[in-house]
Amino acid sequence: MGGDSGIARNAGFAFGVQMTGAVFTAGLTLFLVRALDPDGYGTLALAISVGGVALIVSDLGVSQATARYVAENRGDRSAAGALVGDALKLKLAISAAVSIALAALAGPIASGFGASDLEWPLRAIAIAVFAQSLMFMYSTFVALGRTDLNLRLAFAESFTETAATIALVLLGAGVTGAAFGRAVGYAVGGLATVILLARVFGLLHKGRRHRRVVPRRALAGYAGALAIVDGTFALFSQIDVLVIGAVLGPSAVGLFQAPMRLAPLLSYPGTAVAFGVGPRLARRKDRPPDVEGLETALRYLVLFQAALIAPIVVWAEPIVDLLLGEDYAESAEVLRALAPFIFLGGLSPVLSIGVNYLGVARSRIAIAVTALAVNFAIDVALVPEIGIVAGAIGTGVGYAIYTTGHFWICRRELGIGLRGPAIALVQAGSAACAMAAVLAAFGTSSLSPIAWLAGGASGTAAFVLVLILTGALTRQEGDAVTTAARRVAARFR
User: Fold this and answer.
1) CA-CA distance, 433 to 443, in Å (whole number)?
2) In sequence order, what are the beta bridge partners of 287?
3) 85 in the same domain as 222
4) Which helix (H) or strand (E) holds 376?
5) Distance between CA atoms of 6 and 276, rounded to whole angstroms?
6) CB–CB of 47/122 below 8 Å?
7) Domain-terminating residue out of 377, 401, 417
8) CA-CA distance, 175 to 31, in Å (whole number)?
9) CB-based burial of residue 471 (10 Å sphere; 0-12 exposed, 13-18 middle, 19+ buried)?
10) Same structural domain for residues 377 and 455?
11) Last residue within a domain, chosen from 417, 439, 474
12) Is the CB of residue 185 less than 8 Å from the CB of residue 158?
């Protein structure tokens, strides 16, 4: 299989995984923000954020470290099986200990936040943390180029979580029911992951001997570096909620987290591309890292993510009103302030996952720690002064440091030039400005159905036209984009 076709196939399946999660996550989020109100949704978000911190310890970088070595030994299934077997044993021990500790400390943690309703949701999230940690081992399928397996896992987990959560909430279980619905979903996903790992790597075949080519100490050492990096980034993702919850309370958390929960859905195409490109950057004996594939991916992602910024900035109020309802009117400013984070969210996964596969994860530590420190400092300084918008500002600034730092590592390791990305940024920025001007002409506070459709179509046309005029897209590429847009629009007529 050729390089481009391999990337396209893996990215295609990975995009299917991301879209599966996006559809269920978006639907479930829109249900919960209305069913629980800001205070209830904020309590759930706070429980999930505390669980996210526990998940840092539960994974300890084992998943990504295993994926790196599996990619390097892709042609040796026996060696890969030994790696996965060692990783699973380590995972089960650590995850069980962390989840039991979180369940035991649920009461004191709830008291610390001054939210008694947080205790039982935390116990449910403890179960979810154990299963979610096991599910993180899906990265080994990415390393093998078997992202099609992840599509099955994503559907099983997302469907189960959504169905269980909605059922429990409608039955009157409230926030606790929503948390247990999440636990049920990840329990199914975690069990399915372990079963697939056993089948793919032959872990249960009697008499099969797996040849260990990567010492356990090497696996643990690289996992340690990744634990610091991924743990710091996971804490970066939760720090806003934790600070807002401690300073302003669960209701403010709900107003902040509702748009924040939807924002990462817009970065899913970038994550899908990362799963296609990342494994091809591993240093293997039979071929060098695919630098051209990485550069091409970055160029297209810059253009795609820029198209999302104009609606987020110009139409923040009508978007929040349409999706979240009038109780979340204050969330519009948060969504608008998240624009830099949303743009960079499509680029960062390609760079960070690429660095992992290059085997230089230790270079990421200083970047991740700096991004977290800056985000935390901004939150502590500004949340008491300007409220929940400060969380979005801190996230944007911190994420800019994180993404730029990873680009610099890729430039150092692979020789990526600056001219191409700089030109793409100027072209994409010009197109986004043109799109914003068109959207603003249709209104910025409330939109009729006609304004939504006409404004969206006109803004997209203006964006594509500027890209063609500046040379960012060829006429053939522009025609392909507009044709695809027409096909999508035709399905909704």
Assistant:
1) 16
2) 284
3) yes
4) helix 365-386
5) 7
6) yes
7) 417
8) 12
9) exposed
10) no
11) 417
12) yes
Nearest partner of 81 among 211, 178, 177, judged by Cα: 211
The whole-angstrom separation of Cα 320 and Cα 32 is 15
Computed over its alpha carbons, how large is the radius of gyration of the chain?
22
Q: Measured between alpha carbons, how far is 369 from 352 in angstroms, rounded to an integer?
A: 14
What CA–CA distance (Å, rounded) separates 458 from 480?
Answer: 17
Helix spans in 144-215 (H): 147-168, 174-201
Query: Can you state the percent helix, strand and coil of the chain, rounding each to 5?
Result: 85, 0, 15
Q: Which two tokens stand for residue 7?
A: 């990337």
Cβ distance 144 to 80 under 8 Å? yes
Q: For the chain, what is the domain count?
A: 2
Q: Could you tell me if 345 and 434 lie in one domain?
A: no
- Identify whether the C-beta of residue 301 lies closer than 8 Å to the C-beta of residue 89: no
- 52 and 156 fall within a common domain: yes
For the chain, 493 residues long, give each residue's pLDDT as a single digit of tens. 344 444 455 555 555 556 666 678 888 888 998 898 888 999 999 999 999 889 888 887 777 777 777 777 666 667 777 778 878 888 888 899 999 999 999 999 999 888 888 999 999 999 999 999 988 887 777 777 676 677 778 888 889 999 999 999 999 999 999 999 999 999 999 999 888 888 877 776 554 455 555 556 666 666 666 677 777 877 888 899 999 999 998 999 999 998 988 877 777 777 777 777 777 777 766 677 777 888 888 888 898 899 999 999 999 999 999 989 888 999 999 999 999 999 998 888 888 888 877 877 778 888 889 999 999 999 999 999 999 999 999 999 999 999 999 999 888 888 887 888 889 899 999 999 999 999 999 999 888 999 999 999 999 999 999 998 998 877 666 666 556 545 544 443 4
Q: Which amino acid is at 215?
A: P
Round to whole Å and give the CA distance between 59 and 165.
Answer: 25
Q: Within this chain, do residues 337 and 428 fall inside the same structural domain, yes or no?
A: no
Is the distance from CB of 281 to CB of 357 less than 8 angstroms? yes
Rounded CA-CA distance 485/489 in Å is 6
3-class SS at 287?
strand
State pTM to two decimals: 0.73
* φ, ψ (nearest 5 deg) of residue 283: -85, 100
Q: What is the DSSP letter of 169?
A: I
| Residue that the structure tokens 């009157």 belong to | 172
Q: Do residues 29 and 157 both lie within one domain?
A: yes
Q: Provide the phi-psi class of 76: left if phi over 0, else alpha when psi is between -120 and 50, else beta.
A: beta
Q: Distance of CA 301 to CAs 52, 100, 252, 345, 356, Å?
A: 27, 41, 33, 10, 20
- Identify the residue whose tokens are 């404004």: 455
Pair 433, 360 in one domain: no
Q: Domain range for residue 91?
A: 3-417
Q: Are 126 and 99 in contact (CB under 8 A)?
A: yes
20 and 63 belong to one structural domain: yes
